[in-house]
């Protein structure tokens, strides 16, 4: 088994989450929306998980809507809010996003152009952090919503959410935070936001489940983007998947008890890994310097080396990802790296790594050894 360092894509499943889910796959585990005893037990398990998640993110349990993941939560937060504003006669037609958002935010926002919205993308600095002065100029009394991520999924840069909230509030705009990569990595509390998107499989829970925080104080309540039953407060129809929700809840409970511990562990391992690379005289550049990146996240450029070939050559020994995205069979440079000012060539030399809760010191030293054998000194 190779050393898994691709936690930006998906984190390993916590054993506690696996164990908590197991009884709920049973054939007789009821539908949480059914009136019989099995259904009621399932509904209770779902509500317990909702409370666990609420404790982690500082919300009321009733402010959390379960979704299939952060992609769906982002779609509801952006499209659902824009459509609710249109329906409610709110005369604000601009949505401001950072230029390095996940595609589920960027595409949701741009899909609203046909409904008359103007989408404004705020630039980032060379450290992958939103340019606050530029943002300040872009947000005003036409702004309906400002949407910025907590931590970037490709480079790990931490965004200055307090400043973003200050700017948005001064203009009377709503605030959405895509917190998929932030939970469990950096301190996070929903209290200041109107909407926040969460993803279970980025915080050691199962894939296929996430949540949208909708503040009870938000002056616009998103409309659903899917139509069906009235589950999840009428915002997200469909049967709530009990096993996945229970696993998500267990992962949240573990995360809450390990907040500082996980961050220290990840930071220690990434520092050890970098030290090992340096001691082996490997030439590399950190795209995001230490104070701006989430603990354990690394975006590294190896000049003169193609990331795809590093990944392929390291393939059976370490699992890492490139800083590029493969769209319709064609490799395109990451929009995040290009926005940070890297050239296409520099972007193609970039790999991303994440040292998770389950990595060890031995993983960090071994990964550095493998990379030193592949890339030039
Ligand atoms: N936002 C960010 C920042 C992400 O990293 C991801 C996952 N790559 C998503 C949204 C989408 O999350 P999910 O896989 O839960 O739909």
Short description:
Helix content is 37%, strand content 16%. The chain is built from 12 helices and 15 strands.
Q: Topology of this protein?
A:
Elements: E1 3-4, H1 15-21, H2 37-57, E2 64-67, H3 70-87, E3 94-98, H4 103-110, E4 118-122, H5 132-138, E5 143-149, H6 161-170, E6 174-178, E7 195-199, E8 210-214, H7 242-257, H8 259-279, E9 285-286, E10 297-301, H9 307-314, E11 318-319, E12 321-322, E13 324-327, E14 330-333, H10 335-339, H11 344-348, E15 350-354, H12 361-374
Parallel strand pairs: 1-11, 3-4, 3-5, 5-6, 6-7
Antiparallel strand pairs: 2-8, 7-8, 9-10, 10-15, 12-15, 13-14
Helix pairs in contact: 1-7, 2-7, 3-4, 8-12
The structure holds 4'-deoxy-4'-aminopyridoxal-5'-phosphate (PMP).
4'-deoxy-4'-aminopyridoxal-5'-phosphate (PMP) binds next to helix 3.
Structure description:
This protein starts with a strand and ends with a helix. With 377 residues, the chain is of the alpha/beta class. It is globular. It contains 12 helices and 15 strands. The chain has 2 domains: 124 residues, Aspartate Aminotransferase, domain 1 (Alpha-Beta Complex); 237 residues, Type I PLP-dependent aspartate aminotransferase-like (Major domain) (Aspartate Aminotransferase, domain 2). Bound molecules: 4'-deoxy-4'-aminopyridoxal-5'-phosphate (PMP). 4'-deoxy-4'-aminopyridoxal-5'-phosphate binds next to helix 3.
